[in-house]
């Protein structure tokens, strides 16, 4: 349906719009049927948190939003309320059950908002990557328009078919958009559209802007630009895509501005580094110490600590705790890379790779949890770019690194209730003694500096990220050890892998 505007889209309203407040209504009524889940899809965890928690966090942080109302799937209101309470979302005023249909859900939401002039934003709970920019532009547009939609251009040609699946029309793509949410309204407009629609026996809403379009045809509906990242988690592939998009966002973890800021963050913290004698572990140890942290590096070569031995790990953690009374971060950079055909490897070599690269991090994770629970701290693991695709002649190394990614994501979920974060750093090829031993001398400009990875690791440790695989790469043409402002020799900002 097209609109017949009775007034120009830029015409000023007859009376100034003065909303009492702006309310975000988060629609969480989906059941997850298409994902094949036993729980509503909005409760599925991505990047260490339920999808709905990510979504609510955006509106909680938006200064334009005064209040949030959640309409939850039947039978799951208590679970949603627990998420709200645990996260401390102060703007959420109500968590109530939605209706059986979109019509009924919107009417319940309007009743919950109450009377008076209010801005209302309806947003799908399973669009957790909505940006602050989109929220802001929706609210700002309501000063001029009484209905606002969010959409992106269609990259695909859209065809129209008949009942026999034969093409009847191919609309001009330049005029087409793919709708997203939020959809924003002045409360009087959306209420009036639904009041008129109630008299239509064939009324069935799937889209609130569509209700305005059909039943208030003289009302301009402003469209603002959405984003490709603002996807709706509906199908199994969407879960994978959302997870990867969160990884891209994670790679942009805030970089503190100067040394004083890092010192304020790290002074008084205790960091335990397994594998801290050389390479990334050594650089992280020195960097964190320089910012005031108390760092305890352990390794096979310097302290006789074997990460695969539970008694060695226990002793290491105990000594750090007894010295400082706390452990805030546990970092596991220990690892070995043995090249060779799998069928040609002897049992001793295979056992060593598996034990150091996987059994070790598992052992450290199990024994670190009691300490990290006390400080709401973080476990930081390391993978390799080979985790995405196994590499010939170091199959076991690749396999163990893939296992660490799964371990990170699983533990982030398991430990979320304890307030303990778990993340994994994925650096590109890095200049370390382990790499030199395995591959020989390589051109310096092709490798990432270990200092760069250490700086990125530090940024992740002091962030609130969890369940993330953070890709660290050099910018094209950048020197291996570019600095943060005012500090020559400090590494560059991490960038996400595509």
Automatic annotation (TrEMBL):
Pathway(s) the chain acts in: Isoprenoid biosynthesis; isopentenyl diphosphate biosynthesis via DXP pathway; isopentenyl diphosphate from 1-deoxy-D-xylulose 5-phosphate: step 2/6
Domain of life: Bacteria
Gene: ispD
Residues under site feature: Transition state stabilizer: 34, 41
Site feature (Positions MEP for the nucleophilic attack) residues: 173, 232
SUPFAM superfamilies named in the record: NAD(P)-binding Rossmann-fold domains, Nucleotide-diphospho-sugar transferases
Official protein name in the record: 2-C-methyl-D-erythritol 4-phosphate cytidylyltransferase
GO terms of molecular function: 2-C-methyl-D-erythritol 4-phosphate cytidylyltransferase activity
The reaction(s) this protein catalyses: 2-C-methyl-D-erythritol 4-phosphate + CTP + H(+) = 4-CDP-2-C-methyl-D-erythritol + diphosphate
Similarity-based family: Belongs to the short-chain dehydrogenases/reductases (SDR) family. Belongs to the IspD/TarI cytidylyltransferase family. IspD subfamily.
Species of origin: Micromonospora olivasterospora
Listed Low complexity bias regions: 478-492
Keywords noted in UniProt: Isoprene biosynthesis, Nucleotidyltransferase, Transferase
């Amino acid at each position: 349906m097209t609109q017949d505007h009775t007034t120009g889209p830029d015409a000023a309203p007859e009376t100034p719009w003065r909303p009492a407040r702006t309310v975000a209504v988060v629609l969480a009524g989906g059941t997850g049927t298409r994902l094949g889940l036993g729980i509503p899809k909005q409760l599925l965890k991505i990047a260490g948190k339920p999808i709905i928690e990510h979504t609510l966090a955006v509106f909680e942080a938006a200064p334009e939003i005064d209040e949030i109302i959640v309409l939850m799937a039947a039978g799951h209101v208590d679970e949603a309320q627990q998420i709200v309470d645990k996260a401390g979302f102060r703007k959420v005023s109500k968590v109530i059950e939605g209706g059986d249909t979109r019509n009924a859900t919107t009417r319940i939401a309007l009743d919950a908002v109450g009377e008076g002039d209010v801005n209302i934003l309806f947003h799908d709970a399973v669009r957790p990557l909505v940006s602050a920019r989109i929220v802001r532009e929706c609210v700002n547009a309501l000063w001029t328009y009484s209905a606002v939609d969010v959409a992106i251009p269609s990259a695909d040609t859209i065809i129209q078919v008949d009942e026999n699946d034969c093409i009847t029309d191919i609309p001009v793509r330049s005029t087409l958009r793919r709708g997203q949410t939020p959809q924003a309204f002045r409360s009087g407009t959306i209420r009036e559209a639904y009041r008129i629609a109630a008299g239509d026996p064939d009324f069935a809403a799937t889209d609130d802007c569509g209700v305005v379009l059909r039943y208030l045809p003289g009302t301009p509906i402003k469209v603002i630009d959405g984003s490709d990242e603002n996807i709706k988690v509906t199908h199994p592939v969407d879960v994978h895509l959302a997870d990867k998009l969160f990884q891209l966002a994670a790679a942009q973890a805030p970089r503190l501005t100067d040394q004083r800021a890092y010192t304020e963050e790290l002074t008084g913290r205790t960091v335990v580094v397994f594998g801290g004698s050389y390479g990334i572990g050594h650089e992280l140890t020195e960097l964190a110490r320089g910012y005031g942290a108390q760092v305890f590096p352990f390794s096979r070569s310097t302290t006789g600590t074997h990460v695969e031995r539970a008694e060695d790990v226990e002793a290491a953690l105990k000594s750090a705790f007894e010295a400082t009374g706390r452990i805030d971060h546990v970092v596991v950079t220990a690892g070995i890379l043995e090249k060779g055909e799998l069928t040609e490897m002897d049992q001793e070599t295979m056992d060593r790779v598996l034990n150091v690269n996987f059994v070790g991090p598992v052992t450290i994770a199990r024994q670190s949890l009691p300490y990290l629970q006390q400080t709401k701290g973080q476990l930081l693991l390391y993978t390799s770019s080979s985790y995405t695709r196994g590499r010939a002649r170091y199959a076991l190394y690749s396999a163990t690194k893939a296992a660490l990614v799964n371990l990170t994501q699983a533990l982030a979920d398991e430990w979320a209730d304890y307030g303990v974060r778990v993340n994994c750093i994925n650096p590109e090829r890095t200049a370390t003694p382990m790499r030199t031993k395995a591959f020989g001398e390589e051109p310096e400009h092709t490798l990432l500096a270990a200092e760069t990875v250490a700086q990125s690791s530090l940024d992740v440790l002091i962030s609130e990220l969890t369940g993330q695989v953070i890709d660290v790469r050099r910018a094209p043409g950048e020197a291996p050890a570019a600095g943060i402002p005012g500090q020559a020799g400090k590494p560059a900002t991490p960038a996400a892998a595509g």
